[in-house]
Specification:
The complex is a heterodimer.
Chain A lengths: L5 H10 L5 E6 L5 H13 L4 E5 L10 H12 L6 H10 L6 E4 L2 H7 L1 H10 L4 E3 L9 H9 L3 E3 L1 E2 L5 H10 L4 E4 L14 H12 L5 E4 L5 H10 L2 E4 L1 H23 L5
Parallel strand pairs in A: 1-2, 1-9, 2-3, 3-4, 4-5, 6-7, 7-8, 8-9
Helix pairs in contact in A: 2-4, 2-11, 6-7, 8-9
Chain B lengths: L11 E2 L2 E2 L8 H15 L2 H15 L5 E3 L1 H5 L6 E6 L9 H14 L4 E6 L3 H13 L2 E7 H6 L1 H9 L3 E5 L6 H15 L3 E3 L10 H9 L1 H14 L5 E6 L3 H7 L9 E9 L10 H4 L1 E5 L2 E5 L24 H9 L2 E7 H15 L5 H14 L7 E6 L7 H8 L15
Parallel strand pairs in B: 4-14, 5-6, 5-8, 6-7, 9-10, 9-14, 10-13
Antiparallel strand pairs in B: 1-2, 3-4, 11-12
The chains are: A alpha/beta, B alpha/beta.
């Protein structure tokens, strides 16, 4: 059967009133094999769209939990081309759309078109690019079109109307709404700014989907975000659960965070 | 060749530059660019900055001819020093800091953050924060807080908070990462006072403009006091701010050769160096596309230099452009060559240079042997060496090194 696209999954969950949970896990953490197992477990326990992180030496958008995990992966000798092994290992076992979240330089050094081709061949859905704004993304726009990949750009509370329009127009899959001005990591309260970002994207293009990330760590927040957006993105909470209690703790955390979504 | 290299402005210098940053920072970069453009068009801004430089920095800085130092090369090449070490706070860094502090006020922001390697930019930032009544946080790699302990004390005395960065290689690169994280989180009230000509647009252009006073003064001083322009310019290059500050006024003087000297650390035949332009290749780091030290996967490699200020695996995009154009040449200088030059200048001229600057001096000594008779070299003496006395004292064996480093090594 044909794998559903990211947008199809989000749209169907939205239309059926369920809402979506987008879950992040770093590839290669704590090893390539273990990261495949962890990612598959996430997909089997309530994650609707998977986000696999590429370990990178200078992760300026990541907080301490994810920094520590990706550093471990690099210290274990993670090589960039192994991202495709992880994507393939997951997509062979589950139907969940698999996006890769990566800082831009690794893609640039691998070759943008070559990266896109290898990602598509591995069954990957597309890329989330935290330090690539649409203004600098010509190579990626071309490559993602050529290989029919999702491209998820970010929108922030400080983005102008014009920039909301650009993000809405050029993103495929969804727009990643940065909920608070800050880096990844759990926060006690979700910022009302997230709603502003979702509204900005929706105003620019009512057909575009928006998921909210950064600062989400409880089932209540996941449900609350799904009340006004098309999905909630969780990263640090999952990585923390895995770091503290292994795959069983990760499964329990995914189930817990998905528990308030109507099933 | 009829070029007008001086008029080049950001966001791109040829294939280099740009804004490879999270969307969360775009509004702040746009605001900074707009504020800077408005300030440039406003004569009162230039007057205010010039007045600060006259009454606070101590500009113009003088030019000193280093006759005994030059004679040690065994050639008749003359060597001139542009004395940025005599600026308030002891280096060129104050030029940029005062400019950006004025812009911080114009943007209505109350807090500045800065990264620092050797501590010179951190000290300059803390100084400006004290002068303008701004809150100041400085991120400094933990390794650097140890080898530049004196500057940490200076910053704290000036009222700044110094945060040792314990991630990654615990040096300048990681201090920039932490500063960027802080900025993303606190962009409402905080200006990131970036200390070099790297980073996303408009920093490379703006920081260059604030330092271009070095070359503008020096060019006029050479003409007024000596009646000629130098055959060659020499400056050390880490991120590249003092170098571009000297070079910029001379970019369209085709008869003036331009040399930047990078840190070759243990030597260019070893992996322990910071010679980004010599051995790096283009990539994206800290918001700009430029040369950088990286592995085949695009992971940033750790750089190594005895000098904290040059210990950086990236370089400003304008230098990458000047290298590819062939307008500027970039050579590596080893730790040993730099330390030899530090000793040499101290003992021939009574001027103790910073270890960073010593790379430019070592470069000038090398260059003197290759230039034709009758040539002259203008060196940017970018900073004084007081901050380096512990490193130098141990290196030369003037003070006890409890870690008992082998001869020729100091850290």
């Amino acid at each position: 059967m044909a794998r559903k696209t990211t947008a199809q999954v989000l749209r169907e969950n939205k239309d059926s009133g369920k809402g979506s949970l987008v879950g992040y896990f770093p590839a290669g953490y704590p090893s390539v094999e273990a990261s495949i197992e962890a990612a598959v477990a996430m997909c089997e326990n309530g994650v609707d769209v998977l986000e696999l992180g590429v370990p990178y030496s200078d992760p300026v958008m990541d907080g301490p939990v994810i920094q520590a995990a990706t550093l471990t992966a690099l210290e274990q000798g993670f090589k960039l081309k192994q991202i495709f092994d992880v994507v393939r290992g997951v997509t062979e076992r589950v139907d969940t759309p698999v996006l890769v979240m990566t800082y831009w330089n690794p893609v640039l050094q691998y070759g943008v078109d070559r990266f896109a081709a290898d990602l598509a061949a591995a069954g990957g859905a597309g890329l989330i690019t935290p330090d690539l704004i649409p203004d600098e993304a010509n190579l990626w726009l071309t490559a993602s079109d050529a290989h029919n990949l999702d491209r998820v750009f970010l929108a922030a509370p400080t983005s102008t109307e014009t920039r909301f329009e650009t993000a809405a127009k050029l993103s495929r899959g969804f727009v990643y709404a940065v909920s608070t001005m800050g880096i990844t990591g759990a926060r006690a309260e979700l910022d009302a700014l997230a709603q502003k970002v979702v509204g900005g994207v929706r105003k620019a293009d009512p057909a575009q989907l928006t998921c909210v990330g950064i600062g989400i760590s409880t089932a209540e927040q996941v449900a609350e975000v799904n009340g006004y957006a098309d999905g909630a993105i969780v990263g640090s909470a999952f990585v923390k659960a895995y770091a503290e209690g292994g795959i069983e703790a990760l499964k329990a955390e995914v189930q817990a965070l998905a528990s308030n979504l109507a099933r | 060749m009829t070029t007008n290299l001086r008029s080049q402005s950001g966001p791109y210098f040829g294939d280099f530059g740009g804004r490879y940053v999270p969307e969360s920072l775009i509004a702040a970069l746009d605001q900074l660019e707009a504020t800077y453009k408005a300030a440039k068009a406003d004569p009162t801004f230039a007057m205010e900055l010039a007045e600060l430089h006259r009454t606070y920095t101590g500009r113009p800085s003088i030019i000193t001819e280093a006759k005994r130092f030059a004679a040690s090369t065994g050639t008749d090449v003359r060597i001139f020093l542009k004395r940025e070490d005599l600026n308030h706070t002891g280096s060129h860094k104050i030029n940029n800091v005062l400019g950006q502090a004025l812009l911080t006020k114009r943007m209505g922001k109350t807090r500045i953050i800065a990264e620092t390697g050797a501590g010179q930019h951190g000290v300059a930032s803390a100084t400006a924060a004290a002068l303008f009544g701004l809150e100041c946080t400085v991120y400094m790699g933990e390794v650097d807080t140890e080898r530049q302990a004196l500057n940490v004390a200076r910053m704290r005395l000036l009222g700044a908070e110094v945060i040792p960065v314990k991630t990654g290689s615990r040096t300048l690169k990681d201090a920039i990462n932490e500063a960027l994280r802080d900025w993303v989180a606190n962009v409402d009230n905080t200006h990131y006072l970036l200390g070099t000509v790297a980073g996303p647009h408009p920093f490379p252009e703006m920081v260059r403009d604030f330092h271009s006073v070095i070359g503008i003064e020096a060019r006029q001083q050479m003409l007024d006091e000596y009646g000629f322009l130098p055959t060659a310019l020499a400056a050390c290059v880490g991120g590249g701010s003092n170098a571009i500050g000297l070079f910029h006024a001379f970019l369209d003087d085709q008869d003036v050769a331009i040399y930047g000297f990078e840190a070759a650390g243990d030597g260019l035949d070893t992996p322990r160096h910071a010679a980004t332009l010599t051995y790096g290749r283009p990539g994206v780091l800290h918001g700009a596309r430029s040369y950088m030290l990286q592995d085949e996967d695009g992971q940033t490699m750790e750089s190594h230099s005895i000098s904290a200020g040059l210990d950086y695996p990236g370089v400003g995009p304008e230098h990458a452009w000047l290298k590819d154009l062939g307008r500027a040449n970039y050579w590596g200088i080893s730790d040993k060559e730099a330390m030899d030059a530090m000793l040499q200048l101290s003992r021939t001229e009574g001027i103790i240079p910073a270890i960073e600057t010593s790379h430019a001096l070592a470069g000038a000594l090398k260059l003197a042997k290759e230039l034709p008779a009758g040539s002259s070299i203008l060196v940017n003496l970018s900073g004084r060496g007081d901050k380096d006395m512990e490193t130098a004292g141990k290196y030369f064996g003037f003070i006890a090194d409890t870690n008992a480093a082998p001869a020729g090594g100091s850290h």
